User: Fold this.
Amino acid sequence: QEKTFELKISHWVPASHPLQKSLEDWAAAVEKASGGTIKSRVFPAQQLGKAFDHYDMARDGIADVTYVNPGYQPGRFPIMGAGELPFLMSDAKGGSMGLDAWYRKYAEKEMKDVKFCLAFVHTPSSLHTRTKKVVVPDDIKGMKIRPADATIANFVTQLGGTNVQSSAPEVRDIIERGVADGVFFPAGSLVLFGVDKVTKFHIDAPMYVTTFVFVINKDKYNEMSERQKKAVDDNCNTEAAGRVGEFWGKFEDAGIDKVKAQSGQDVYALTPEQVALWKKASEPLIKTWGDGVRKTGVDPDAALTELRASLAKYNALTP
Amino acid sequence: MSTDAVAITGFVALFLLMLLRVPVGMAMGLVGVCGFGYLTGFTPALKLVGQTSMRTVTDYTFGVIPMFLLMGTFVSHSGMSRDLFRAANGFVGHLRGGLGIATVAACGGFAAICGSSVATAATFSAVAYPEMRRFGYPQSFATGVIAAGGTLGAMLPPSTVLAVYGIITEQDIGKLFMAGIIPGLLAMTMYMITIALIGYLRPGFLPAGKQTPWRDSFAALKDIWAPVLLFIFVIGGLYGLPYLPRFTPTEAGGVGATGAFLIGVLTGRLDREKILASLLQATRTAAAVFTVLIGALIFGYFLTVTQTPQKVTEFLTGLGLGSYGVLAVIMVMYLVLGCLMDAMAMIILTVPIIFPVVSQLGFDPIWFGVIIVMTVELGLIHPPVGMNVFVIKSVVKDVSFTTIFKGVLPFVATDIIRLIILIAFPLLATWLPQQMMAR
Amino acid sequence: MTRHSMDRFIDTIEWIAAAFVGLVALDIFVSVLLRNLFNYAIPDSFDIGRMLLGILIFWGIAATSYRGAHITVDLVWGNVSPRYQRWIDVFATLVLLFVVTVQTWTLFDKVRGTYRDNVTTFDMHMPTWPFFAVAWIGDVSAVLLIAIRTYRLVFHPEDMHDPKLKATE
Ligand code: NA
Ligand code: NA
Assistant:
């Protein structure tokens, strides 16, 4: 006799965001695989808790499955920070699969108080600015930037800029008011939140990605029968990570075309020399990241080499 | 118990606790935790308390509340209300009912730098009431004008209640503030017309004040530079006027508070004692508001688990009343609730449940913010209970509730007409924020 | 604790909260000034600002709870005799004491979590837990003050002086 479950799935983006459908699809797949014994309900838009708390919510059982941005809490998930290193990934689907396959063994250490489900990234994204065209790293000096995550925040600081924090819905407002001069943002979201109305210059290069995970409450998972656990496990793997990453990636990629189609927008690629300058400028980040990781007892050099190999395997390593 | 039964039990328990004078926020938190715990487990429910408390008090956007409160207390303590009243009186005081018109005008001016309806009413109970009585205005009229004029505090920007609405519904606070300007000015105008009408229809009821020489009238204008400067700087910066620095709402509050402090100190009107009193009052009120915010969030999570907002939406939209019929139902509910609690508590408790309905019906969220604040403010003055009336009673000792409510009635009628106008012509609220978007 | 030292303790807590309100305003004002005059943003001013806000609110809740300045529904209370008013006040204060005690206990867990999880600020990577701990101490004082309030309400109602004008909006 199996118990039936009704899982509370919680995320913090609007219900119109592609992630809503990804989570609904995920829930439907689990329900089907469990023979209808695991049902779910998706709670969007911070209805069960604030964005920053979503990891703790799964850990504490406030929700059963949550969507987490580990970069929201600098210092807490140092290993995962590797995924945020600039100019690393070139593709949403492959990047998600490469990251997921690599992170599985570290999740046992770094996210041990939850059942790790999968890791993914949004599409490779870049910097959008209001008045100043940014081409080389030195251009960041003196600028106020809304970073995407803790690693990009470090990058901005290293380049002589300062960070301005805000939630995604406020980005438009702070740029319009000159509180920030630019934002690291994926292009689809740029349009979704109307930030394209207040920015003019858009770098078209795979500068960074933001990492995300789905995590599950451990007690809930442990209560499940073997068949139910398998139903969950079969949807918590690298293929599933690829599906989530690809679906969202397509949405974001469509954004850059929308921006290009608008008059008065300057969407520009970087030359190989400029990319080389950015990569060189971002090297200290690898060291900063490594210092944080070393404290956890993990060898950062080996870990990063593994990540690169994993990304290469899924054709998502930036050349 | 079914989730519906749990939700209903929760509401009953909440109202019982509130009627027994348990602070609104604490009652919501307690019921929320018990309900959430019953449905999900008590360990997660307790974790929810710590998490929600800490997250709410350290949310930067919420900083807008204490900052505008502080600006309001500095402004109240530096006597700008008296200057405003004197300046307005110089121009209209000699008319029949002129002191009442001057009170409304001064309330409007004060409201432009103070975010609270209650504070505006309290301030003018001390400033304008004695003047009106000295010239033989009836008690009921004098207190009625102040109660109504006080509501301008929440209508005209800055407005703490509108800011809280913006926080809860994730709407742009700057745009909400802009949306309040035209309805606020409309309210001022309509109150003045009401007073003029009363004076005209009941000769002998309202006396005229003394005539001020024109030279003196204009001379008094120079004393109101401080509130004018503050308003232009803060609201202009929020709106994005050219040549002014641009602020986010929280920054506008912080800069406004510092500005009010500096003006008060430099003009010698804020002494040590008044500065400390301002800081204390802002702290107490901010803590009181945050307590309700935390409690409401926890209660909200409980309601989310019971699916109450969805069910209320389905129920109300399924009544077949049409969108304006549902809107009418909602507004009647607010008027009833207005007998129980103050504006802030009402907004925080109900908006999470009502807002999904309103969105579903396709109403503009910024416009609805203005409508809801107007309705809630009406609750502050309509009988049998109203916060502004309580406040006036606490300042003006020798007046009965019945007398105040009698004086308030014409303004309640005016408010209802204004609500209908705003519902018929939403552009009155949405036009200014749209201009802000366009640039 | 003697009556005098109790009052001193209450005043001190209230002043600490009030000082933090001023600090938050100053932090914002200076940030805006530096941004507009020198195009400079203070590192971590966002994180520090929001954590100061947290401190101010929890210390403020302590004072507000003691003064009986919370937002309440006075419909019943305003229409009964002083005897029943006192019973209602005692009941409400006991509930308040219970709720804030539970809150303080769960918040300790949160502060410990922040420490254990090594959460830092965005720019300068300062640990955030000390700020949270200071805020938490505010909540501890709230429990103490509400306990004092309960004691006085029951045994020394003449020592209670709730403000005439309650905090609203
Ligand atoms: Na106002
Ligand atoms: Na009322």
